[in-house]
Design brief:
The chain is α/β, with parallel strands linked by helices and 245 residues long. The protein contains 7 helices and 10 strands. The protein has helices at residues 9-31, 45-51, 80-89, 106-117, 157-165, 184-188, 203-211; strands at 2-6, 34-38, 61-65, 67-69, 96-98, 124-126, 150-154, 178-182, 192-197, 229-234. The chain is globular and about 40 Å long. Keywords: Carbohydrate metabolism.
Length: 245
């Protein structure tokens, strides 16, 4: 585990993007292609904005989407497909982009997406940490054992409140009850994981993650068992812990 503390969300985004681009370029140099997982939400704005500007041959990159709500259209403000297409995939020329789609008969879509994901390992995954310490939409208590690549999960109240505070929904009652999420087990199969976690609202989750043993009630603690996990913080998100700059 490596923990880095930057002065601002902008510096955090630059550092997380630099590390990500470096890993992508190393995978391309080694195998001719890189497979990545991207997460979404307000915490990822700076990282994705910077990443798409860096020197990467995106035509040799395959991207997989981390999670999506069940039952909302791509046109919805909160759609993570919409988020990624507007903020990232429309601005770079990827070899392939695989999205989670929770509309209609989503079980068949999950199966096809899982088949694509299982074809080769993920080189690098950008995995945020939620205010309740969730990773993807694996809210506490998270299932650490389910080995399916994508699973349907029930969103807890804390997670729903976060979505409202970030401006994706007007009220908690408007947040869908369920989401499709990459499983914890699948996330942990990634060769490298980078977690870009800015802002004061994440300080408690970071403190809990770093100061507690592995615990499904604090899902992000599982990341500490990964062989190549880098946690990038800013001054506000690191406020509750001791981090050498």
């Amino acid at each position: 585990m490596k923990v880095k503390m930057m002065d601002s969300p902008q510096e955090l985004g630059r550092e997380a993007a630099r590390l990500t681009a470096q890993a992508i370029n190393e995978a391309i140099a080694e195998r001719g292609v890189a497979r990545i997982v991207l997460s979404t939400g307000a915490s990822q704005f700076e990282t994705l904005d910077e990443l798409r500007t860096l020197d990467v041959d995106w035509s040799k990159v395959e991207m997989f989407h981390l999670d999506e709500y069940v039952g909302i259209t791509e046109a919805h403000l909160a759609s993570f497909r919409k988020y990624l297409k507007e903020r990232f995939t429309s601005k770079v020329s990827l070899q392939n982009a695989y999205f989670v789609d929770g509309e209609g008969e989503y079980e068949d879509k999950m199966k096809r997406l899982s088949e694509e994901l299982r074809k080769a390992p993920i080189d690098i995954a950008l995995i945020g940490i939620g205010e309740n310490a969730h990773i993807a939409f694996n809210d506490p208590p998270a299932d650490f054992d389910n080995q399916q690549p994508y699973i349907v999960v029930n969103l807890d109240e804390s997670c729903k409140r976060q979505q409202v505070r970030e401006g994706w929904f007007p009220t908690v009652n408007d947040v869908p009850e369920f989401a499709i999420s990459m499983s914890v087990h699948q996330i942990m199969q990634s060769k490298k994981i980078i977690s870009a976690v800015p802002h004061a609202v994440k300080a408690q989750a970071i403190k809990q993650t770093l100061e507690n043993d592995i615990n499904p009630d604090i899902p992000a603690t599982i990341l500490k068992t990964h062989s190549d996990w880098t946690l990038v913080l800013d001054r506000e998100s690191a406020a509750g812990v001791e981090v050498a700059k």
